[in-house]
Amino acid sequence: MDHSEDQQKKRKLDEVSTENDMAAGEEIQADNATQHMDDDLATSGSGSKRPTDSNDKKKQRLNPENGETGKLEEEKKENGEANKSKDTSQEEDKSGDAVNKEEDKDESMQDASGDKDETNPAETHENKTSEEGNDTTKEETEFERTTKNKSKKDKNENPYKSLRWIVVKNDGRPESLIKLVALKSLFSKQLPKMPRAYIARLVFDQRHTAIAILSDDPAVKDTDEEVIGSICYRAFPEMRFAEIAFCAVSATHQVKGYGTKLMNLLKQEGARTGIEYFITYADNYAIGYFKKQGFSKSISMPKGRYQGLIKDYDGGTMMECYVHPSIDFTRIPEMLAAQRKFLLDRIRLKANSYKVYDPLPKDFSPHWEGVSRANEAAARAMAIPGMLDAGWTLTDLLAATGQGKDVDRAKMALKSELLAMVRKVEEQQFAWPFREPVDTTEVKDYLEVIKEPIDISTIDKRIRKGDHYKSKQMLYADLMLMVNNCKLYNEPGSTYVQCAVSLEKFLGSLFRDMGTRS
Predict the structure, then answer these.
(1) Is residue 184 a contact partner of residue 200, using CB atoms and an 8 Å limit?
(2) Is 247 helix (H, G, I), strand (E, B) or coil?
(3) 221, 297, 293, 283: which is closest to 246 by C-alpha?
(4) pTM over 0.90
(5) Pick the residue with more confidence: 18 or 336?
(6) 332, 264 in Cβ contact below 8 A?
(7) Dihedral angle, C-alpha 146, 148, 149, 152, nearest 10 °
(8) Which of 52, 145, 234, 317 has the least CB density, counted as fewest CB within 10 Å?
(9) Which residues pair with 478 in a beta bridge?
């Protein structure tokens, strides 16, 4: 193919030379036309003005090895030399044909190149889908991050803000009566030993107020199941105290912290309404709960403020809680956490736990002068660098090792056993006269008759000190002294003496393993 094209080009050159001899008179016009074509060829070589130059470059990229671009330029040069022997019109026609042919070729080559340069619609859709997927992933990530931040924020928020609770009393409104009926049902279920008529009378009494935590479930709205827990109390505003009548949490919501939240809400409401003390009579099973909520068996409120307003209950323990007016009881967990953090920060300022001491050398041996063999382990420990700086003494180490450790372990075991025994005695229904010391301001002649007064709370304090009772026999002696004091002061057949007899029988069974006889 290349050899035949070369022959055709030579034949054309011979024809052009013959025509140039015959048209010598038209050399001037031919020179002008030649100059014009040379300018065009020069412009096509620079690629700055000719619009088809970009297509020529595409053809070079598509076919870098077949030399098509070089052949086209040679044809342009040959056409320019041939046009020298023709007139201007023929030259323009031929040049126009050449340009048309070249444009046709350029268009065909541009179409071919366009097929490869155009982006595949399917690929575009996939890329777009991928980009949309990335955007969706970003949105989902941002949403998840927002949700996590919100959940963390919710955890840090005060839990009482999301709690649904009300203060209700018998004001005659239907919605209040509906809630009071639900409260009556709750107290009747959770306090089965309490007469239902008595519960209904106090709950619907207009002098009593109730605070209740309600469920968020719309399916149980205005039903008995809506009430999670409640406290019913009667306030005495003129004396600035209130008596708690009933306190209960639904069986399905117990051990979830509602009891503590309920009591804190009650204290908050009491502080808002000017209540200074809460008083209640707790049975044996409720004493532990009220202790955790800040109630104490020691009554600090002057007796003249509540005497004659509340009555005594047999088998119940009177307990009291002081309500500080400046404390936000719904933020107790936050305050405790802040106090703990403050204390730990202060401890770190004085602690030496961050110091690191060099290890002992291999040939190290402590000084054993004046140290008995039994104390060698403690002396060896005291020789470790940093022990003295940490405040340890030889006495401390002896108490934590060897015989001292065994003695402390025995003391702790005895202390735990004695506390368990006293707790069993305190939980008995007939133990209520012995739980607190006799009030000598009321019973004027008590100390004249009883020379060694004793009670369960005093015994409990002696045990917790850890040094008073050396054995269970000593505890049994104090408990029997308490029983005998009761028999000695009170008249035979009285309620107090009956309780003392019952307690004596119980102590006989409790200490039977020691060989004690009642």
Answers:
(1) yes
(2) strand
(3) 283
(4) no
(5) 336
(6) yes
(7) 160
(8) 145
(9) none
CA dist 255 → 229, 252, 260, 516 (Å): 12, 9, 10, 41
pLDDT in tens, 402-421: 555 666 778 888 999 999 99
368 DSSP 8-state letter: -
Check if the beta carbon of residue 426 is closer than 8 Å to that of residue 435: yes
Rounded Cα–Cα distance for residues 225 and 185 (Å): 9
Q: Which residues pair with 231 in a beta bridge?
A: 211, 247
Alpha-carbon gap, residue 424 to 418, rounded angstroms? 10
Residues 377 and 402: beta-carbon distance below 8 Å: yes
269 alpha-carbon distance from chain centroid: 28
63 has pLDDT over 60? no
Contacts of 212 (CB under 8 A, 6+ apart): 165, 166, 168, 179, 183, 227, 228, 229, 230, 231
234 closest CA partner among 245, 224, 225, 226: 245
Three-class secondary structure assignment of 350-362: HCCCCCCCCCCCC
Of 428, 515, 411, 426, residue with least CA distance to 469: 411
Interstrand relation of 277-282 and 317-322 (parallel, antiparallel or unpaired): antiparallel
Give 330 or 35, the one with higher predicted confidence. Answer: 330
Element (H, E) at 449: helix 446-449
C-alpha 500/C-alpha 431 separation (Å) is: 8
Residue 209: left if φ>0, alpha if ψ -120 to 50, beta else—which one? beta
Alpha carbon 18 to its chain centroid, in Å, reads 102
Residues whose CB is less than 8 angstroms from the CB of residue 501 and which lie 6 or more positions away in sequence, other chains included:
none
Helix (H, G, I), strand (E, B), or coil: what is residue 369? coil
| Unique residue bearing structure tokens 């605070």 | 211
3 state DSSP class of 192: coil
Q: Tell me, what's the pLDDT at 198? A: 94
Over residues 124-151, mean pLDDT: 45
Closest CA to 377 of 354, 359, 403, 357: 403
Alpha carbon distance 119, 125 (integer Å):
10
For residue 344, what are its two tokens?
């730990």
Residues serving a catalytic function are 243
In sequence order, the β-bridge partners of residue 213 are: 165, 229
Within 8 A by CB and 6+ apart from 199, the residues are 184, 187, 188, 191, 246
Closest CA to 166 of 245, 232, 113: 232
Contact predicate 501/428, CB 8 Å: no
Amino acid (one-letter) located at 440: T
How far from the centroid of its chain's Cα atoms is residue 298's Cα? 38
Residue ranges of the alpha helices (H) in 23-67?
27-46, 53-62
To the nearest whole number, what is the mean pLDDT of the chain? 75
Residue 12 contacts by C-beta under 8 Å, 6 or more apart in sequence?
A: 78, 82
First to last CA, the chain: 135
| Nearest-10 Cα torsion for 263, 266, 272, 277 | -80
Check: CB of residue 256 under 8 Å from CB of residue 312: no
